[in-house]
Amino acid sequence: MTATKGLEGIVATTSSISSIIDGVLTYRGINIDDLAEKATFEEVVYLLWYGKLPNQAELDQLHRDLSANSSVPSEVIEQIKLYPKNTNSMAALRSAVSSLALYDNEANDMSKEANVRKAIRLQAQLPTLIAAFARIREGQEPIAPKSGASIAENFLYMLTGEQPDPIAVNALDKALVLHADHELNASTFAARVTVATLSDIYSGVTSAIGALKGPLHGGANEAVMAMLEEVGSIDNVESYVNRKLENKEKLMGFGHRVYKNGDPRAKHLMKMSKELGKITNNMKWYDMSVKMEEMVTRLKGLKPNVDFYSASVYTSLGIPRDLFTPIFAISRTSGWTAHILEQYDNNRLIRPRAEYTGPVGTPYVPIEQR
Ligand SMILES: CC(=O)SCCNC(=O)CCNC(=O)[C@H](O)C(C)(C)COP(=O)(O)OP(=O)(O)OC[C@H]1O[C@@H](n2cnc3c(N)ncnc32)[C@H](O)[C@@H]1OP(=O)(O)O
Ligand SMILES: O=C([O-])CC(=O)C(=O)O
After folding, report:
1. Is 185 in the pocket of ligand 2 (CB under 6 A)?
2. Does this UniProt record's set of keywords contain Cell wall biogenesis/degradation (predicted)?
3. Which ligand is nearest to the CA of 218?
4. Shortest-distance atom of ligand 1 to CA 308
5. With contact defined as beta carbons under 8 Å apart, do 273 and 286 qualify?
6. Backbone phi, then psi, for 5, in 5-degree steps?
7. Number of helices and strands (H, E) in the chain?
8. Quick one: which H or E segment has residue 30?
9. 307 in active site
10. For residue 1, is pLDDT > 90?
């Protein structure tokens, strides 16, 4: 038995949800470039869950279902009020999503119908939880979700209490489309491993949030912004990148386990970053990012991944840095739940082996002789 570090190249499951073939990403066979330009996030949610694009009536029904389920139990809001004000936002989200299960009568109902209803509730409630957390820590009251609004519109509305600009809504919606699913990434794998024990969907999504939090995965978008802020100005990019590469340190938002010739989502976010920079009359983060990309690509051959330009996109939308990864979680909930439903449909316990590298034949030494 020989281990493959990080399971690189190991095919661990079959899935019909999303694919990465020759650097091309598809959701249910539809190229991400088409979806990014043409689909709304709700259409993508439907596509991931049901395997086809919705017709108008189906999409309208999904909007109604998401809207009707977007309020969170008051007990969970009361718990969030008890969280330390400076708590990590992904830790807060992980705890709050886990708490949702306590107030869901169907939490442990493993029927397909109940699991689909729970997927809808999770998708609808994550934005509400995150906006509530963001307001509560600022000493503000949470804002109830607005009936009939899309997930992107509702999230921005619940965050600020103001009707968001349609440009901001469209930009966030497109970012949600781009982050919705990504084959067997670490957080989706975590979700599938958890539910493959026939544990419940809340446990699966809670595991996934824990995995997404790390800076090698979803946490990189926040780390990219921290890096840009540390660099401070375009004049410092060159020395910063040179220093990082000399010290063999990671540059956040670059590299990918699967894409070696570039992440197809990055160009869309780059374009959005440029457009939003122009609209907000602040090209600083975009310009710094472009210079960094040019250097890292030239010197190290690494391309930006989905997290790189999303950092400047969210900053242009006025979103606090530590909500970037929770926003990723809002989007990826669609993919996580699609994978969880797929796992239940064709389940087998996921239990690989480890190559043992410890001592052998070790005698047991009685405690008085140690
Ligand atoms: C949504 C997402 O999860 S997208 C990924 C988000 N994560 C990041 O942006 C964090 C920065 N990037 C990374 O840490 C990595 O590229 C990962 C985690 C994405 C992929 O990791 P792996 O597939 O294990 O690649 P690995 O770490 O083996 O990298 C191969 C080589 O490239 C280097 N490398 C990879 N990424 C970077 C980076 N961002 N900056 C500098 N060097 C890098 C490694 O140091 C290694 O160099 P070496 O061969 O000289 O030792
Ligand atoms: O697939 C991965 O390893 C990480 C990634 O880009 C994602 O989850 O979107």
Report:
1. yes
2. no
3. 1
4. 9
5. yes
6. -60, 130
7. 16, 3
8. strand 30-31
9. yes
10. no
Residue type, 261: N
Token pair, residue 28, equals: 């249910």
The pTM for the full model equals: 0.98
Neighbouring CB atoms inside 10 A of 183's CB total 18
CB 331 within 8 A of CB 41: yes
Average pLDDT rounded to a whole number, residues 207-220: 98
Q: What is the mean pLDDT of residues 144-160?
A: 97
What domains, with CATH codes, occur in the chain?
18-214+322-345 (1.10.580.10), 220-316 (1.10.230.10)
Beta bridge partners of 27: 18, 30
| Single-letter code of the amino acid located at 247 | N
**Candidate from 221, 250, 306 with most ligand 1 atoms within 8 A of CB, to mutate:** 250
Pocket test for ligand 1, best of 25, 216, 296 (most atoms within 8 A of CB): 216
**Inter-CA distances, 308 with 153, 174, 185, 226, 249, Å:** 23, 15, 17, 11, 16
User: Pocket residues for ligand 1 (CB within 6 Å)?
Assistant: 6, 216-218, 220, 250-257, 300, 302, 305-307
Q: How far is CA 185 from the centre of its chain?
A: 10
Going from the Cα of 37 to the center of ligand 1, the distance in angstroms, rounded, reads: 28
Residue identifier of the C-alpha nearest atom 23 of ligand 1: 257
256: annotated active-site residue: yes
Nearest CA to 115 out of 182, 53, 204 is that of 204
Cβ 191 under 6 angstroms from ligand 2: no
C-alpha count within 13 angstroms, C-beta hemisphere, residue 147: 2
Kindly name the residue from 179, 256, 268, 339 that is annotated as catalytic. 256
Cα(306) to ligand 2 centroid in Å equals: 8
| pLDDT tens-place string over residues 287-321 | 999 999 999 999 999 999 999 999 999 999 999 99
Q: What percent of the chain has pLDDT over 90?
A: 99
Tell me, what DSSP letter sits at residue 51? S
| Nearest protein CA to atom 40 of ligand 1, as residue | 250
The amino acid at residue 350 is I
What span, in angstroms and rounded, lies between the C-alpha atoms of 14 and 26? 15
